[in-house]
Design goal:
The complex is a heterodimer of chains A (261) and B (595). Chain A is mostly helical and 261 residues long. Helices cover 70% and strands 2% of the residues of chain A. In chain A, a hairpin with a 2-residue loop joins β1 (214-216) and β2. The two termini of chain A are 36 Å apart. By secondary structure, chain B is α+β, with helices and mostly antiparallel strands. Helix content of chain B is 18%, strand content 41%. In chain B, α5 packs antiparallel against α9 and α6 (314-332) runs antiparallel to α7. Classes of the chains: A mainly alpha (261), B alpha+beta (595).
Chain lengths: 261, 595
């Protein structure tokens, strides 16, 4: 109950469901995913698909489209890209109020999680619509949502970290873009199982990776699960990094806490 | 010994030395499949074994070229209690086989039918071991019944022999003193004659004339006196039938009044010619008769097109996406819903997303498209008027959207199940053995575990002989054509038509137990050679296409619908063998060869 009354949760709801720019971003998200669905909608007959062996990639495309959109939006939301004045708010909270840093970080993290779920919910109708025509069953929804959701959460926390650390929006955007691209490229080359796009490509049965579980010392896990675990771990680590950064800022800049200001 | 490329009978003898058991006997055959994948087909039967009992459980298994091994496992309550493996490579042969039912090894002369490229081997099955399924005779070209050692065949054994003849087999009953046993052995229904006694003769000049020889056999021989009950006398001596032939389905039943295994016939110069004449048939093994895939099979093509079996149209997807966006619009526009509180707006947006998700699921996973396997069914049944039995070939195309498996219950127990080439993702190296399919024969026969990959297909070919008392008679009077069609079966024959002398005449529906008579003037008929006429006869493009494909696909010996002396064809609404509801109306053509 304490966490439910966290002021940052309330502030998040008031920001993300009122600001016109953010509402427009939801509309754009749904529009882009809808467009991906239409563009990749199968046009051949079933027997032509069976004969050619080229299967409809509608579900995979919608998944990847949703992942790309949510990665972009997660980065923007995390770094408060839609409300440039926000950086001041986070720092002001840390510097000018007695609110504990744990409460700030917990509130922000929880809202990031809940808001990610909301964004996934917006994309779910398209995922469900594309499932059967791609030869998938309802059991595939959970892996797809977990991979996209965990990756979005991690990016969002990364955005929050850049918000705390970097003053200029341009710097934050550059840092976010470079970090995400580097992660995707390096992970696809070095540890493909950690890469969310590779994980999404492997969800539909028949793909090579989908049927090959990853062997770990304590047992084996489905291919997609490593990406989920790594993304959630990264998100929580980044939340810890945000907390540490805010504590550093508070110590450095608040006179009553030994700061220089 | 088993012949490659045919079904072969297999008897599994199970002895229970303990207390009573309910057992499942499973036979697995494996062979190298498509692209090197190992394919397996298994057959199961359930049996009750009282303590100390020995049961012999019959199977019919396909022996494809390259078949490697056959495993038999007996299990009770899920526990395997016995297992045996047979190396098929040591047993398989490509030679032609002739089965001789005789108490003595007296038919070895039949091996004289061997040609340089097609050696003939003679096998002598015990009467008790004779198959109870017609497919058990698939590997033999001819069955010669000399004598049954005074044993009586079981009803299922006699029925299997009859059904095999219907599929094109040649059955020969030899005469002499052994002929007196035939009726009592349970083969009277198949015999073209009724044995009335025995007579002794010194020569048979009519036999020489029948075979084109100048001299017939000379010496004392016992001739069975008989009265023809079915079929036609092809050779007689002094009014006594010496060779009688009965056509049954695609095959023939012969009766020779003499015993060709005894002197002087066994050493007569015309003996080889006689056996050659008796063994003449063009029967093809039921196994492997069809190749190709479900998407390319000509019978399936008629079902795949018109209307196409496909995905929901792009317009449906557009309507869905557009509708969802329109529903979201009021809640995402600050102008429209300016006074909406943040939490309420979030809740309403979630409600719209949930409603759209449900709608998307119902539309694209339930109503417009389903992810379970599609079943298409096309069949052709051939009946000769008077036989009351039909030889049925039914093709079942399974199109899987999701990876999964299906099962098919069958209406007929004695079915030979074959499969054409499968299309789909090839098995990965190191993947488990492809389960193929499993045929479970109990009170009902069910094909289980028909697995397929995502967007894969399978084409099953079912062959059976079923009861179908349908008759057609065609006659002419004063330039008119008289037709009488009698449907003694339990199914309606829809949109029947007569094909006679290159013309097609519409007859209409014939209900069960109904006899329809029609008189046609020659001008009433359509010239069957034109595609337009066939379309008018068939009633729709799908059926017309099936008529064309079925005609082009006619196997050797099977009556060609458009070329025969006179045939009546009609359509059945439901599949004949499979007990399924196909995703498209089943195409089941019944062709009745008129008298």
């Amino acid at each position: 109950m304490r966490i439910a009354r966290n002021p940052f949760l309330d502030e998040g709801v008031r920001t993300y469901f009122v600001q016109e720019a953010i509402l427009r971003s939801y509309f754009a998200l749904v529009g882009v995913i809808g467009l991906a669905l239409l563009l990749w909608w199968p046009r051949a007959s079933l027997d032509a698909v069976v004969r050619s062996g080229i299967f409809p990639a509608t579900f995979t495309t919608v998944c990847i489209g949703l992942y790309v959109c949510l990665t972009y939006l997660g980065a923007r939301y995390g770094s408060e890209g839609f409300s440039p004045e926000a950086r001041g708010k986070v720092r002001e909270y840390a510097l000018l109020t007695q609110v504990s840093l744990a409460s700030i970080v917990a509130g922000r993290t929880l809202f990031a999680l809940l808001h990610t779920l909301f964004l996934l919910a917006l994309g779910t109708p398209f995922l469900l619509a594309s499932l059967a025509v791609s030869g998938g069953g309802p059991a595939l929804m959970l892996p797809a949502l977990l991979v996209i959701g965990a990756a979005t959460f991690a990016v969002r926390m990364y955005g929050l970290l850049t918000l705390v650390l970097l003053e200029r929006q341009v710097g934050r955007d550059l840092c976010l873009a470079a970090g995400i691209i580097l992660f995707l490229v390096i992970s696809s080359l070095v540890v493909p199982a950690v890469n969310p796009i590779t994980a999404l490509l492997s969800i539909l049965p028949g793909d090579k990776a989908a049927e090959a579980p990853i062997s770990l010392p304590f047992g084996s896990i489905p291919f997609f699960l490593l990406s989920v675990i790594m993304s959630l771990a990264a998100g929580l680590l980044l939340a810890g990094a945000v907390f540490a950064s805010l504590r550093g800022i508070r110590r450095r800049e608040r006179p009553d806490r030994g700061g220089t200001r | 010994m088993v012949r490659e490329g045919c079904y072969a009978p297999l008897l599994v003898s199970v002895e229970n030395t303990g207390s009573r058991l309910q057992v499942t006997v499973r036979v697995e055959v494996t062979w190298g499949g498509l692209r090197g994948a190992v394919v397996q087909r298994s057959f199961t039967r359930h049996a009750f074994l009282p303590g100390g009992a020995t049961r012999r459980i019959p199977f019919v298994v396909p022996i494809l070229r390259g078949a490697r091994s056959l495993k038999v496992a007996v299990s009770s309550n899920g526990l395997e209690v016995a297992r045996q493996e047979v190396d098929l490579r040591a047993l398989a042969t490509s030679d032609r086989l002739v089965a001789g039912i005789s108490s003595e090894l007296s038919l070895d002369m039949v091996s004289a039918l061997s040609g340089p490229d097609a050696p003939v081997r003679l096998v002598y099955p015990r009467v008790d071991d004779l198959p109870e399924s017609w497919a058990g005779y698939d590997s033999v070209d001819m069955v010669v019944v000399h004598d049954t050692a005074f044993q009586q065949l079981r009803a299922a054994q006699a029925a299997a022999l009859e059904a095999w003849v219907v599929t094109g087999g040649a059955l020969v009953f030899t005469g002499g003193t052994g002929a007196l046993q035939l009726g009592a052995a349970g083969l009277g229904r198949l015999l073209p004659v009724e044995i009335t006694g025995l007579r002794e003769r010194d020569d048979l000049p009519s036999l020489a004339a029948f075979l084109g020889f100048s001299r017939g056999p000379r010496g004392k021989m016992v001739i069975a006196e008989s009265k023809v009950t079915a079929g036609a006398v092809v050779s007689s001596q002094d009014g006594l039938p010496t060779i009688v032939k009965r056509r049954l389905g695609r095959g023939s039943v012969w009766f020779t009044a003499f015993d060709p295994t005894l002197a002087p016939l066994d050493s007569w110069g015309g003996s080889r010619a006689l056996w050659r004449r008796l063994s003449e048939n063009d029967r093809q093994p039921a196994l492997g008769a069809f190749s190709g895939s479900a998407v390319d099979d000509p019978w399936m093509k008629a079902l795949l097109g018109n209307p196409p079996l496909g995905f929901p149209g792009s317009l449906a997807a557009l309507a869905f996406a557009g509708g969802y966006l329109l529903l979201l619009l009021p809640f995402l526009s600050a102008r429209i819903s300016r006074r909406l509180r943040a939490r309420l707006r979030a809740a309403l947006l979630l409600c719209v997303a949930a409603a759209a998700a449900c709608a998307g699921w119902l539309m694209f996973d339930r109503e417009l498209f389903r992810s379970d396997a599609r079943i298409l069914d096309a069949a052709r049944a051939d009946v000769r008027s008077g036989d009351s039995v039909a030889r049925v070939t039914e093709k079942i195309g399974l199109f899987g959207v999701q990876a999964g498996s299906a099962e098919l219950p069958l209406d007929t127990a004695d079915v030979a199940v074959d499969e054409a080439v499968r299309v789909g993702i090839p098995a990965r190296t190191g993947s488990p053995l492809d389960p193929g399919l499993s045929i479970d024969t109990g009170r009902e026969t069910t094909i289980r575990g028909i697995s397929f990959p995502r967007f894969g297909s399978r084409l099953l070919v079912l062959n059976a002989v079923v009861s179908m008392p349908v008759e057609a008679r065609v006659g002419s009077s004063a330039g008119s054509l008289l037709l009488s069609v009698s449907n003694g079966s339990a199914r309606s024959l829809r949109r029947c038509f007569l094909v006679h002398a290159g013309r097609g005449y519409l007859v209409g529906d014939v209900a069960p137990s109904e006899t329809v008579t029609r008189t046609f003037a020659p001008a009433d008929g359509f010239l069957i050679s034109s595609a337009e006429a066939r379309l008018r006869l068939a009633g729709d493009a799908r059926r017309a296409s099936f008529l064309d494909q079925s005609e082009a696909d006619t196997e050797p010996g099977r009556s060609r619908l458009f070329e025969g002396p006179g045939s009546v064809a009609g359509w059945l609404d439901d599949p004949l063998i499979a007990h399924v509801r196909p995703d498209r109306p089943a195409l089941c053509l019944v062709v009745v060869e008129a008298r």
